[in-house]
Specification:
This protein has 439 residues and is of the alpha/beta class. It has two domains: 327 residues, 3-Layer(aba) Sandwich (Rossmann fold); 100 residues, GMP Synthetase, Chain A, domain 3 (2-Layer Sandwich), CATH 3.30.300. It contains eleven helices and 21 strands. The strands form five sheets. A nine-stranded mixed sheet has the order 4-3-5-6-7-8-9-14-13, with helices on both faces. A four-stranded antiparallel sheet has the order 10-11-12-15. Strand 1 and strand 2 form a beta hairpin. Helix 2 packs across helix 3. The longest helix has 22 residues. The structure holds 5'-O-[hydroxy(phenylacetyl)phosphoryl]adenosine (DLL). The site of 5'-O-[hydroxy(phenylacetyl)phosphoryl]adenosine has 20 residues, from helix 6, strand 7, strand 8 and strand 12.
Length: 439
């Protein structure tokens, strides 16, 4: 097994916890001394940095969330002089102003270490040639993975997002061995390649590093089979640096190891904020343990997962989070029924004649919520017989009805008919005038 730093990655759990506590105390003192927003919140709750004497005491600390970053936009949470900030990244979000995050030089070094660790977990070495298909803008995916791989010593090919034909040419000409993209873009690249007669089997790619959006096991298997590579999934979010928070090793495809020397995790009940026992599903909350510029304590990610600390076959001792499939805020309320897009995805993934591409469209033109699920047929499933297609459509409706406990409208779309994206895919289009709320 190859580790980037075995001392850290396979440290006894008691050692990891000890290191976390030491860093937590320092981080709390750091934010309290430097950020007025935290000083005020600490006063309101009635705590002082000295009250943090154990990791459990983290529960005394205030939560932060996207709203905190909006309220203090753009630099209100910055804990260092702005002339020591060397980079900004931002996340667009779906509503309102973007949130912005700054990094000191040391923050960037830590971030690159986290990324170098996760790519090593996926079997990437300095001998690899890495083709980047994430964008290099304010999004953290491109720069984050770029510098982490470069730190490892890989040959970076900063192709960026889009222009699929050029990507295929680069694989062929530069013999790249690793592809970094969202899983949905990898799928698109695969389809475009197949349509052009690109020979994935003899192509040089051997590893796919996917992240930025959920990747189901079905999708992973499909991409691995069609592109002839091994893929792993990594998780992160702009507010907490970007990619590098957690990554999948080659031993457990359902979980990702959290870089616990840099992030303290908790899982809470999203409705009450109460911390749940280990292994229970809830909302992931992360505290950055050594961030200089934009330190976030107890950041509510809205991502639903569960975390376990059982030993992993790879020998790493850092806790593992189950792959994120849903967010508390992507729950849709349709005619009073709570629906997560991941439930739709699970129901569709068992139907062989469909591609993994789908879209959920909501409207209430008639005064009542209507949910339409657009599903895409595989080329071999397409038939001229109206009866046969209608029978199949009914079959899809039945499967969704069983999973969702409500009956959606199903529209069959011809192969390639659902729009592909270069970055994160957009699964839900909510056109309702006053949509049901989210958690
Ligand atoms: O997506 C950071 C990132 C870039 C991670 C590239 C990995 C690779 P944001 O744009 O701020 O940052 O979006 C963060 O995306 O809260 C999750 O809901 C979702 N997400 C990110 N990675 C995964 C993943 C980046 N591997 C939000 N699986 C997060 C499932 C993911 N969801």
């Amino acid at each position: 097994m190859t580790y980037l730093d075995a001392n850290i990655e396979t440290a006894p759990r008691a050692h990891i916890r000890g290191m976390q506590l030491e860093k937590l105390k320092k981080q709390v003192a750091w934010v309290y001394a430097r950020v007025p927003w935290y000083q005020q919140r600490f006063r309101e709750i009635g705590i002082r940095p000295e009250d943090i004497q154990s990791l459990e005491d983290a529960r005394l600390l205030p939560f932060t969330d996207k709203q905190t970053l909006r309220d203090t936009y753009p630099f209100g949470l910055c804990a260092i002089p702005l002339d020591e900030v060397v980079r900004l990244h931002a996340s667009s979000g779906t509503t309102g102003k973007p949130i912005v995050i700054g990094y000191s030089q040391r923050d960037l070094d830590t971030w690159s270490d986290c990324v170098a660790r996760l790519v090593t977990m996926a079997g990437v070495t300095r001998a690899d040639r890495v083709q980047m298909a994430f964008g290099y803008g304010m999004f953290t995916g491109g720069f984050g993975l770029h510098y982490g791989c470069e730190k490892l010593g890989c040959m970076m090919v900063p192709a960026g997002s889009g222009n699929t034909e050029r990507h295929l040419m680069m694989i062929e000409d530069y013999k790249t061995t690793v592809l970094i993209s969202t899983p949905s873009y990898a799928m698109h690249m695969c389809e475009v390649g197949e349509a052009q007669g690109f020979d994935w089997k003899s192509a040089s790619l051997r590893v796919g590093l996917f992240g930025g959006e959920p990747c189901t096991l079905g999708m992973k298997r499909e991409i691995e089979g069609r592109m002839h590579l091994v893929c792993t999934d990594n998780y992160g979010l702009t507010e907490v640096n970007g990619p590098g928070v957690a990554g999948e090793c080659l031993s457990s495809c359902e979980y990702q190891h959290i870089a616990e020397d840099h992030f303290l995790w908790e899982v809470i009940d999203p409705a009450t904020g109460v911390v749940l026992p280990e292994g229970c599903e809830g909302e992931l909350v992360l505290t950055l343990l050594d961030k200089e510029a934009f330190p976030l304590l107890r950041y509510r990610t809205h991502d639903l997962t569960r975390v376990i600390t059982e030993p992993c076959a790879c020998g790493r001792t850092h806790a593992r989070m189950a792959k994120v499939r849903a967010r508390t805020d992507d729950m849709l309320i349709v005619r009073g029924t709570n629906i997560f897009p991941s439930q739709v995805e699970d129901a569709l993934s068992g139907i062989e004649r469909l591609t993994p591409h789908y879209r959920i469209v909501l409207d209430n033109e008639s005064g009542m919520d209507r949910m339409t699920v657009m599903v895409e047929l595989r080329p071999e499933a397409f038939s001229d017989s109206f009866e046969e297609m209608d029978r199949f459509r009914h079959h899809v409706v039945d499967r969704l009805k069983q999973a969702l406990l409500m009956t959606p409208v199903v529209k069959l779309v011809e192969p390639g008919g659902i729009e592909r994206t270069f970055g994160k895919s957009r699964r839900v289009e909510d056109n309702r005038r006053s949509p049901g709320g989210a958690l």
